[in-house]
Amino acid sequence: MRFYQKNRAMPMSMYGRLGAVEAAVEFEDLTKVYEMGAERVHALRGVSARFEKGSFWAIMGASGSGKSTLLSILGCLDRPTSGTYRLGGEDVSRLDDDALSDIRLRHLGFVFQSFNLVPQLTVAENIALPLYYQGVSERESAERAEKFAATVGLEGRLTHRPAQLSGGQQQRAAIARALATDPTVILADEPTGNLDTATSIEIMKLFRALHERGKTIVMVTHEPDIADWAEHRLVLRDGLVKEAT
Amino acid sequence: MTRGAWSVRVVRDVRLGVKNVLLHKLRSLLTMLGLVFGVGSVIAMLAIGEGASEEAISQIRRLGSRNILLRAAKPAADQNSNSGRARLSVYGLLYDDARRISETIPGVVRVVPVKQLEQSGRLRGRDLEMRIVGTTADWFDLVKRPIVAGRVLSAEDISGRAHVAVLTEWGARRLLATEHALGETLTLGGNAYEVVGIVRSEESDGQGMQAPDARTDAYIPLATARERHGDVFFKRTQGAQVREQVQLHQILVETADEALVEPTARAIERSLETFHRKKDYEVSVPLALLRQAQATRRTFSIVLGAIAGISLLVGGIGIMNIMLATVTERTREIGIRRAIGARRSQIVSQFLVEALVLSAVGGAIGIGLGVLIPRLVTVFAGMPTVVTAWSLLLAFGISVGVGIVFGMYPAVRASRLDPIVALRHE
Q1: Closest by alpha carbon to B184, among B141, B171, A155?
Q2: Residue A28: CATH number of its domain
Q3: How far is B342 from chain A, CA to nearest CA, in Å?
Q4: Which pLDDT tens digit goes with each residue over A187-245?
Q5: Does A8 map to a domain?
Q6: Each residue of B382-393: b (16+ CB within 10 Å) or e?
Q7: Is residue A177 part of a domain?
Q8: Which domain holds residue A99?
């Protein structure tokens, strides 16, 4: 059942510039093999794609298709078994743990299905959490937290704890946190998976707005309706790219 | 990329740690309790031990570490026959002993014979039961008794058998209610002496209970004492009258060096054994007592250290236990922080600082307890206690060390969590 219209009304200006735009995310022939005892599980069997700066991609696929593995690698939480991954022009596929931590801190903003806010911190502190690790001063962190809370429509909720917020509000806080460091790419993993339809639409509208402001967004979802909000689709099946549009 | 100045990061980590510790106040308090009591009891026990041994050691030290002390001791056989009142017990050190020691034993610098007898003293109509101490000029030097007024006995007094006496401050006050007893005439058992000096009183001579004690001493030349008071005297104890003949009650022997004290003491003992048919003397070596007291103190410290180690170990296990629980409970938070870009080392420091906050606050409360308990012991049990600065530092240092050691494993474990797995943790 479809509750909302497919939104193909992409800003055409962006399409026009496509060829000239540099890649935010570029990966070639990524494979990932998990050793489960004696068994070898091929989660990715050679996946390549290029996501331009300012684009909004939806990665789709059934469970077991490899989309979670791909997101882990794109999120620098895991390394590919083989293949290369360039993030903002930098090859990050062979970096060590500390360097990957730094890449996550500098280039990536995460939005999760279950929001993943730190329960004992306030909304402002949660938004400023990556800034803490960047060593940004407390005053500047507070200013930025306020600014990004306003961006996602959470003005006046800065001192609330996550538990005092609705699911939609929590996800907005998580998006604000992902925006706080002005990352190269925002990675969203089923961002509407725990939300009702109306709230899902609110959140997707927020992603659209961010996209229109030039943010690069990569979103994993298994719901076609949600994927429709994105500009492009990368469909995986059995660890291979089935379709990229 | 900058991750901020080192000091700023530490301050922030500590604040985060304090915040997380305060989040579970009761739990944190219970966790600290082990270290609080560990640190508190270590400091308190060290303070009590230190107080006891300090007192013993200073008492022994007053006797002089290069000195050997010989005392007359009534043999057990004589003591049993106390009831026979006609009986005269003859025992103690001899004038010849003093002479022999000074002449024949190598390494001996000075020999100070001491004769003690009890007589009632009278000065301007006031009476006091006194202890006459017949000795030589060296005595004052050897026991390091400071002069309050006048002078102590001189060599001329001794050789000239002068009829002079030196009083203690306490005795002078009792007899005259002032210290200005110089030049007054003191009558001791019917013999007149001129008071030539006053020395500081000794609070206690270790023999304690018996009266008249060291505070009532009247020091006179030994030869005078022998000439005017003799060697035989009556002693009134427990209603019975005892006649005793004692030549010398004490002989103080000073040796040239601490290293000579023990061999000299053995030589003296051998010499005394030869000339005394019964064991009517005691040889005590303050240095040996001092060594013994110090050895006792060392043993005490080792035992305390072991107890301290165990109690702090228990406290540390408590901290580790709660930190492991915290890490498990906050697995997801760890995953979030790692995904956002926290390095492993930052996760380690976050949890290590938390453990350190627990152990440092526990240690600080323990110090408070450790300072309080000895006070209470002193007030209620009357035991001397000494809280030393190093015991506070030691106990606090160990407690922080325990925090580091036992906080490290949970912290490292937290940092080793796979962020992907940690994020899925429910």
Answers
A1: B171
A2: 3.40.50.300
A3: 6
A4: 999 999 999 999 999 999 999 999 999 999 999 998 999 999 999 999 999 989 888 88
A5: no
A6: eeebbbeeebbe
A7: yes
A8: 19-244
